[in-house]
Amino acid sequence: MIRTTDSRSADAAARALYGGARMSEQRSLIARAVLSATGAFTADELHHRLRETSPGLGLATVYRALAAMHAAGGVATVGERGGSALLAHCVRDDHHHHLVCTSCGDVISVDCPLGETALAAAARAGHLVTRHEITLYGLCARCLRAGGGA
Amino acid sequence: MIRTTDSRSADAAARALYGGARMSEQRSLIARAVLSATGAFTADELHHRLRETSPGLGLATVYRALAAMHAAGGVATVGERGGSALLAHCVRDDHHHHLVCTSCGDVISVDCPLGETALAAAARAGHLVTRHEITLYGLCARCLRAGGGA
DNA sequence: ACTGAAAGTGAGAAGCATTCTCATCTTGGA
DNA sequence: TCCAAGATGAGAATGCTTCTCACTTTCAGT
Questions:
Q1: Which top CATH class is A96-148?
Q2: Cβ of B131 under 8 Å from any chain A Cβ?
Q3: CATH code reported for the domain at A7-89
Q4: Reading across the β-sheet that carries A96-101, which strands appear in turn?
Q5: B85 CB near a chain A CB, below 8 Å?
Q6: Each residue's pLDDT expressed in tens, for chain B with a length of 150 residues
Q7: I need a surface site. Which of A60, A77, B41, B81 has the fewest CB within 10 A?
């Protein structure tokens, strides 16, 4: 395997994304691309990015690696863009959601805004909420300052 | 056009779903199926249901009619099931969300649980939330009483 | 280091929901 | 009634994602 500078710590971080499963050179590359990604990405975007340095990498491999990381909690689905799932690197293991910046694509983790009281209306009516999905879109602080609000 | 009992009021209700656009026999049938649906449905489910009485009805026609109703605000996307979009009849024109009963498929409209304070965390960090999507899954009061919680 | 079974890979086919194309009706205002 | 805009049905096309298959790589146990 070709090793680059800082490969040991990068390997450890990459391996962590898969939750300790078997590691291949391709999965390592994919994990590093996920770790170095700024913000959200689609599987296809990640594949294109990786193709620049690894022309032989298959799209199915990217999907499989992302699925493995998803299962291990290393990446999360944070929304959708143009019909494709938007993914992002995520290490928080507590319950939270994501704010996707529609300007730069960056992803900010936010605490779940749904508390006991917020769901009181449903509870009062006798319903039980067992699962919820929240996706937030907006502008991150940087883009907001840069004039995104103009 | 074949007319059934109560067709005049049904027509009016059906027409309203499209927001006053041109009306065809097929669109009328589709709108009535939407109005009589109990809970959420996918485009394909609706098509199958309609096929029983209207064998010639095309799937594309159902998709087009649903898109028209969606644009007019007569139906809303309330979640997803097995890769297909879950739709439901919805007439509330204020901002709200939907609770999909995972047992019977019924859909309950709920007020948006996100208030000013709920988004304070994002605001404090300097971010701006411009759009959000919330999908709630759980059990409706009826299924809960019927032992769904067992 | 060697071995073998389990797991990963690449290419392309397949699956699926949804949209588009096009020739042919319908609709509804003039 | 007339007719242009709009709707329809069948199937092709599209795009995302998953599966298949033959082959290669990984790694625990030796």
A1: alpha beta
A2: yes
A3: 1.10.10.10
A4: A107-111, A96-101, A128-139, B128-139, B96-101, B107-111
A5: no
A6: 434 445 567 778 888 888 876 899 999 999 999 999 999 999 999 999 999 999 999 999 999 999 999 999 999 999 999 999 999 999 888 999 999 999 999 999 988 888 777 777 788 889 999 999 999 999 999 999 997 555
A7: A60
